[in-house]
Amino acid sequence: MPTSDPDGSATDLLEALAAAVAGRVLTDPASTEAYRRDQCLVADAGRPLAVVRAAGVDDVVAVLRLADEHRVPVVTRGAGSGLAGAANAVDDGLVLDVSGLDALSVDPVARTATVGPGVVNLDLDTAARAHGLFYAPDPGSRAYSSIGGNLATNAGGMCCAKYGVTADHALALTVVLPGGEVVRTGRTTRKDVVGLDLTRLLVGSEGTLGVVVEATVRLLPVPARTATAVLTFRDAAAAVDAVLAIGTVTTPSAVELMDATTVRAVNAMTRMGLDETPTLLVQCDGSDAAAEIAAVAALAQRHGALEVLHSDDEEEGRALMEARRVALTALERQGTVLLDDVCVPVHRLPELLGAIETAARAHGVLVGTFGHAADGNLHPTIVFDPASPGAAEAARACFDAIVDAALALDGTVSGEHGVGVLKAPYVARQVGAAEQALMRRVRAAFDPHGIMNPGRGY
Ligand SMILES: Cc1cc2nc3c(=O)[nH]c(=O)nc-3n(C[C@H](O)[C@H](O)[C@H](O)COP(=O)(O)OP(=O)(O)OC[C@H]3O[C@@H](n4cnc5c(N)ncnc54)[C@H](O)[C@@H]3O)c2cc1C
Prior knowledge:
Blueprint: H1 9-20, E1 25-26, H2 29-32, E2 50-53, H3 57-70, E3 74-77, E4 94-97, E5 104-107, E6 112-115, H4 121-129, E7 133-134, H5 147-153, H6 160-163, E8 170-176, E9 182-186, H7 198-202, E10 211-218, E11 220-221, E12 226-232, H8 236-249, E13 254-258, H9 260-270, E14 279-285, H10 289-302, E15 307-311, H11 314-325, H12 327-332, E16 336-339, E17 342-343, H13 349-363, E18 366-372, E19 377-384, H14 391-408, H15 427-446
Parallel strand pairs: 2-4, 3-4
Antiparallel strand pairs: 1-2, 5-6, 6-10, 7-11, 8-9, 8-10, 12-14, 12-15, 13-14, 13-18, 16-19, 17-19, 18-19
Bound molecules: flavin-adenine dinucleotide.
């Protein structure tokens, strides 16, 4: 029972929950601790009244009905791999864990899959591949992040340059609204222009409008071949020059950038022995992949690449891309990280890279930058030692300077990780008062009592 509950309302809610979702309500702090935060370790997290581990849609309906009646905040939780604190618990609220809703079926004829929100991204892709299909959105966390979380954050990944983000693959959603009403949005048709596109509105809404309990997503035929190139450059600006040139001759399925600091961290962790200089990893897929990657390599050479290595062996390609996949983990081994997620028009990347360097120097911190270069989406990662006096403040000041630089370059404060807690202070600066007020009116139409992830997002 709650320690402080002067009017007994928390006790009433817990009793009602225990009756509605018997056996799936955790209140013991030792059990709820694991549900308090996501992977953004620098964002505030509250202490929940309870965690409900939903086993089905009825549980979600019961939680949203009771929470709405009692005006108690609800934070929906998928795999908790978010990087903006969006799934962090709110004090005295409920955490609704939907990872147990993990039904999965593939319709190979329609080229769709219908999944519960708890299905892990990679499991969906693996199931689709058994039918010669694949699920394109591939966040770096795909081995553990959930489709519900991917939808709620409109997750990106490496393949966005060619295949788009999660929203481009979401066809229809079943959503439980605050109060417990169940609505279905979208169609599984290729086209649909009836009314407002509520599916698109829900994707990326970070658990502020309702809880996704089922999604139908688009699958694509597995490309015939994949080919990969590793290109190194004397500086990051030269690498971006090559990115712009590559975009004029082909659309690679991935164009990933790692700066020298990131490559050094990857070498320290993996002993891969990569040249410690700005590096591009480029992947092309389709029947002409080998020819396309050869064209990319030739172009990179003309744009001053120092080293050019390319291969159309799939296994070798996977091994080469591994360096980028472990970039964040490698930087985390160097200290506490404050990870950013800014995105600018691609042609402005050189200016952003310059601003990141300036900010790092001005604040005396180490920044490793990697990211999805073809999308203009970078993850400058500030590495600091929290035990060192003033280091946390310097890291935060550097983070602010990078966000300011992205906005000044017509960019966005978040390309794919979302607003959550971490980026909430910057929303008004990006969208302005009128647009933010409109967003809030839309939010209130879904959630009149403001129980869904309050204080997060917009
Ligand atoms: C190593 C690493 C690499 C990463 N790489 C990428 C990347 O390449 N691209 C990228 O975009 N992100 C990346 N991420 C961030 C993170 O994995 C994504 O944001 C992911 O989509 C979160 O999914 P999740 O299931 O963990 O969601 P959670 O963290 O549990 O929740 C995220 C948000 O979604 C909401 N939510 C969850 N489920 C539902 C639901 N069913 N209905 C409504 N709202 C819901 C939560 O309330 C919260 O607001 C990475 C994270 C890590 C740790």
